[in-house]
Design goal:
It is a multi-pass membrane protein. With 202 residues, the chain is mainly α. The protein has 7 helices and no strands. The longest helix has 33 residues. The protein is elongated, with a radius of gyration of 22 Å.
Length: 202
């Protein structure tokens, strides 16, 4: 009887120490589906990378120093989000809000740079309808940009939640899922910068 009681207590302790949650695992599954989406878009770009229809090439269009700055801003936002997660695990609500705000500003800067690039290309007559190359480029880069935009909306919602309630396990799980999403977008953008921009000018 005593052995059964001890076994039950150990099981309860393990359960309390590692509360069961499927939200993070489920979010990993979502990221895998998103990975398939981006892989398809990269494959499409690879097929149309040299279909210029007599129009300009990536070497003619892309401002690599500007895109490098854009890339640096997004990568820096990944670091600042890491600081926000450190604050969350330490239950420091002020630090979480501060670093989420910094991350939000950096993400908004990235979107601004991207929209400026798109408007410049379209103003010069190099929109997605100009060639298969540009269609694939706009589709891939704008899909990533939409993901960043929705990440910013999610981040704003999380900032409101952290502001209104104490940092509990549920809030930390949500911040963790957003962290996975944000870092995933950084990895995708590194591939975009390397494969689309640098690959088109080399």
């Amino acid at each position: 009887m005593l052995q059964k009681t001890n076994t039950a207590n150990l099981a309860d302790f393990a359960h309390d120490d590692h509360p069961e949650s499927h939200s993070v695992f489920g979010f990993w599954i979502y990221l895998m589906t998103d990975l398939v989406l981006f892989a398809s878009l990269f494959a499409a770009f690879g097929c149309f990378a040299h279909q210029f229809a007599g129009g300009p090439t990536g070497k003619d269009l892309f401002d690599i120093p500007g895109v490098a700055l854009e890339t640096g801003v997004l990568l820096l936002s990944s670091i600042t989000y890491g600081f926000a997660m450190l604050g969350a695990h330490q239950r420091k609500r002020g630090a979480v809000l501060l670093w989420l705000a910094v991350t939000f500003v950096l993400g908004a800067m990235f979107i601004t740079f991207e929209l400026r690039e798109f408007s410049h290309l379209i103003a010069e007559g190099n929109g997605p309808q100009r060639s298969a190359f540009l269609s694939a480029f706009f589709t891939l880069v704008s899909t990533h940009g939409l993901h960043v935009f929705f990440g910013l909306v999610w981040m704003a919602v999380m900032m409101l939640q952290v502001l209104r309630r104490p940092l509990g396990e549920q809030e930390i799980r949500r911040l963790t899922c957003l962290s996975l999403f944000w870092h995933f977008l950084d990895i995708v953008w590194i591939c975009v910068f390397s494969f689309v921009y640098l690959g088109s000018v080399v």
